[in-house]
Amino acid sequence: MIETNLHILYIEDDEEDFYLVKESLSDVKGLIFTMEHATTCEEGMARLVKNNLDVCLLDYRLGECTGLDFLQNVNAFLRPTPIIFLTGQGDRETDVKAMEAGASDYISKHDIDGVTLERTIRHAIERKKYEGQLLEIQDELTMAIQEIRDNQKQLIEMENLKSVRELAGSVAHEFAQPLQALSNYMCLIREGGNSEKYISKSEQMISRIAALTENLRNITQLSKMDYVDTQILDINNLSGKSENGKPQMVLVVDDEDIILETLIEMFELRGFECKGTTNGKEALEMLKKDHFDMIISDVNMPIMSGPEFFQNVKAMGNESTFIFLTGYEITDDVKTIVGMADGLLNKPVAFDQFFKRLDEISSTQIV
């Protein structure tokens, strides 16, 4: 038997049906209840939101508003009051929709008798009570999880710092590569290179940068901003010839074909004699065969890294000016080695500044 003094709201536009249901419940021995009557959705909603009811009985047909509309409008799932859906049609599809909309139970008016209705009300109240307890437990668990997260936040930040820095370096590198290529193409165009060819390649790099920007924006929800600030390069006042009039020899080592190709062509247009390769092992073989006044090497490369290549070059007794070029952050494990080189340039490099920097750090003055 459910608790006495049960407060029931019945939303029903047919007054005769209201009294029939009330009379059926009156026949249940030991049940004491008070039943309110609302004839419209609006009236029923106004009474339900007061949260002073033990149960709400809801008819399907309520004039222009249906019981399904009512369930959706009051957010039945979130209500502390269980709502029992009463139908006169025996339509299973409607009953299922009512349960999906948040009804605690449903019953056909044709099957209503006092005992059945009392049992349905009792079960609905008990289920709603358990739902409330589960929600309280869920809230407590959520608070506990949040407390654990707060307590671990500092530790997590420390543990993730290295990963975050590595990720940031990777993202920077992905942008630096097409930016470097684009900068190179612009320089080549100004130097009288094949304009049509390099304009087409520049457009490809712009598309690549745009795709990277969109991917990054999707991940981080960054607001739109200008990521690319390309400068037209001015290197007309620099010659690559040494004092005896012969072009200086430059070796470029970069695993990105686009960077390698454009760097070689830029040096050659400036009057240097330039060769290149995409890996350090092949570069060491080239150093055994030819003399190079200057070596430009990427830091992060497969097969042989830039720092490893540098150490091998110095072990050979080679005194060429050695300059590192990178789009990544220099990690602690190679920082000392990189610092021993004649220079470090970060991609993207504007080549007017690049050649100016070569003037400052090269052991052979370029005039």
Quick synopsis:
With 367 residues, the chain is an alpha/beta fold.
What keyword list fits this structure?
disordered C terminus, rod-shaped, Rossmann fold, 367 residues, 3 domains, alpha/beta, 11 helices, five-stranded parallel sheet, 52% helix, Helix Hairpins
Outline the structure in words.
This protein is of the alpha/beta class and 367 residues long. The protein has helices at residues 15-26, 41-48, 67-73, 92-100, 114-190, 195-220, 257-269, 280-289, 306-315, 332-339, 351-361, and strands at 6-11, 33-38, 55-59, 61-62, 65-66, 83-87, 105-108, 249-253, 273-277, 294-298, 321-326, 343-346. Helix 7 (257-269) links the parallel strand 8 (249-253) and strand 9 (273-277). The longest helix has 77 residues, at 114-190. The chain is rod-shaped, with a radius of gyration of 39 Å.
Reconstruct the topology from this structure.
Layout: E1 6-11, H1 15-26, E2 33-38, H2 41-48, E3 55-59, E4 61-62, E5 65-66, H3 67-73, E6 83-87, H4 92-100, E7 105-108, H5 114-190, H6 195-220, E8 249-253, H7 257-269, E9 273-277, H8 280-289, E10 294-298, H9 306-315, E11 321-326, H10 332-339, E12 343-346, H11 351-361
Helix pairs in contact: 1-5, 5-6, 5-7, 8-9
Strand content: 5-15%
CATH class of the largest domain: Alpha Beta
The CATH architecture of the largest domain would be: 3-Layer(aba) Sandwich
Specify the structural class: alpha/beta
Task: Note the overall shape.
Answer: rod-shaped
Overall mean pLDDT: 77
Uncertain regions spanning at least 5 consecutive residues: 221-239, 362-367
In the CATH hierarchy, the third-tier topology of the largest domain is known as Rossmann fold
